[in-house]
Amino acid sequence: MKKYRLKKEAVPFFKEKYATAIYSFDTWESLQVDTIALEEVEECFISYGHSDIENKMASLAGWSAEDGQRFHFTLNFPSMKYGEHDKFTNGKSVREMMDAIQTQLDYYYTQLNNDYED
């Protein structure tokens, strides 16, 4: 289901609690917000790579004999409320997310090693 938030230029015309709110279209419609005040919000996503300023290029991964393989990515979450930032930065949500990611990495690494052994 697509999600929407107020466009930056529409925010001053609404109550503060709606400034960073992300809702379905039906919810905004029930609040009697005109569609011209809304913009679609991307769901959570992963962006790959980071900018290598020295070499003026984007890097997806790196490797060294000492450290092995390193992958560069960013997890992007559109915030529904400012307070969500505190939940992420205070640890519990991030730890739970990293545990879930670690489980997937362990599985992938095991499968990768099994493929090379076959």
How would you portray this structure in words?
This protein is of the alpha+beta class. It has three helices and nine strands. The strands form four sheets. Strands 2-1-3 form a three-stranded antiparallel sheet. A two-stranded antiparallel sheet has the order 4-9. A two-stranded antiparallel sheet has the order 5-6. It is elongated and about 60 Å long. The chain is 34% helix and 27% strand. It has three domains: 1-43, no CATH class; 44-77, no CATH class; 81-118.
Q: How many helices does DSSP assign?
A: 3
Structure class: alpha+beta
Cα-atom radius of gyration: 20 Å
Beta-strand percentage range: 25-35%
Can you give keywords for this protein?
9 strands; 3 domains; two-stranded antiparallel sheet; elongated; 118 residues; alpha+beta; 3 helices; 3-stranded antiparallel beta sheet; single chain
